[in-house]
Amino acid sequence: MKALFLIALSSLFIFVSCGNSNNIQKENTAEITQLNLSENEKANNYDVVYLVSDAGEYINSEIAQNESGNFGFVYYRDINQNLNIFNVTKAGELDEGNITALSYDNKTLEGNFPSIAYPFVAKIDGKEMIFKATKTPVTGAKIIEYSYSNISPKTDDPRVFQFKTAIFALNNDTKLESIDKINLDINKDFAITDASIFNDPAKLLTYQSITSNKMTSLYDEWVKSDYISHIESYSSQFGIDFLSEKFVSINQLLYEYTGGAHGNYATINSVYSLETGNELKIEDLITDLNNSDLINLVKDKLMKIEGRDANSYFDLNELTLENNNFYLTSKGLVFTWGIYEIGHYAIGESRVLIPIEEIKPYLKDEYKTIFE
After folding, report:
1. DSSP-derived 3-state class of residue 173
2. Which of 238, 217, 216 is nearest to 167 (CA)?
3. 131, 155, 193, 313: least surrounded by Cβ within 10 Å?
């Protein structure tokens, strides 16, 4: 059992049950079978909207569409790729009213309800900003999140068990095969083979092969093991970093805590072509990942990250761009490194944005317009 919870983050996808709360709204008057959730289970579903400012800052809003005691979140990333997570504390009706949100470090966000139909006029920590939808065949996405929590029966020292997972699906109103292909790939660990369920909320929320496998069996195995620790794992936090007519860039946060000083986490970035549905790797875009000028450019930007110097990293002379977990924004390409990849845990994940005009000389000809 111990090995089960100490696996590497890259294999954290123990996807399990996912469902719908009793208060989910009906769509097209289709009857949605209510899930029989136990007191240890919760289910939420969120509508996802991606909006970007003229400066290249962007938000990914996830507003709850069921009454779960949680209105949702707004993920805001500034031009330097710093992330602020705002917990929505108040939300008006869809397409009317306002939202109010608060970050973990007490920053504030206020604005009208996020929508692709009109600009999102927001005040983020006192700064007024305007975000707009982009021209794209994708109107947003949906998240169906499932969680199971329990405690060990040890009365002298009870331990906590919690697991979250989620389906993330791009909206596909025009029924494009390429977007169906992307949705199947994003959710491949659920073993879904029929892409049509992503376009039918009633099917998605009651899909039996997803909802039948509850977390109780894994909890029971954990309780019986000789390694009882606080367990917290999730792979349900998704976001959109870039959305255009031809490409989408998606992120997923994985987290696992099994006791000790801290948990382990990783962000998995995926870039897809909306025309073909194929995922792009960094070697697909860059002509020569060993180009010394490009590597030196990246090194220089790593050194300029606020609060860092050469001692922040293991050895930048060994830096490689091969197999990089990159993503796109409207302002350029972002190279990323996870914890322990190029520095100690304390510096966290590392990101450097290479603006469009700086990265363009290193792009293959067919991708020089990828940011348009």
Report:
1. coil
2. 238
3. 155
pLDDT tens profile 302-340? 999 988 988 999 999 999 999 999 999 999 999 999 999
Looking at 3.30.565.40, 3.30.43.10, 3.40.50.620, 3.40.50.300, the CATH number of the domain 2-23+36-44+137-279 comes to: 3.30.565.40
pLDDT reported for residue 128: 96
The lowest-confidence range among 93-102, 237-246, 279-288 is 93-102
Mean confidence (pLDDT) of the chain: 84
Give the pLDDT confidence score for residue 227 in this predicted structure.
67
Report the distance separating Cα 47 and Cα 144, nearest Å: 9
DSSP β-ladder status, 141-151 and 127-131:
unpaired
- Sorted by sequence, the CB contacts under 8 Å of residue 116 that are 6+ apart come out as 49, 51, 133, 139, 140
Distance CA 331, CA 275 (A): 21
Cα(79)–Cα(346) distance, integer angstroms: 23
Q: Taking the CB of residue 63, how many other CB atoms lie within 10 A of it?
A: 19
Cα–Cα distance for residue pair 122/88, rounded to 1 Å: 13
Which one is the CATH code of 281-367: 3.50.50.60, 1.10.405.10, 3.40.50.800, 3.90.640.20? 3.90.640.20
* Residue 157 confidence class, pLDDT cut points 50, 70, 90: confident
Distance, in Å, from the CA atom of 72 to the CA atom of 89, rounded to the nearest integer, reads 8
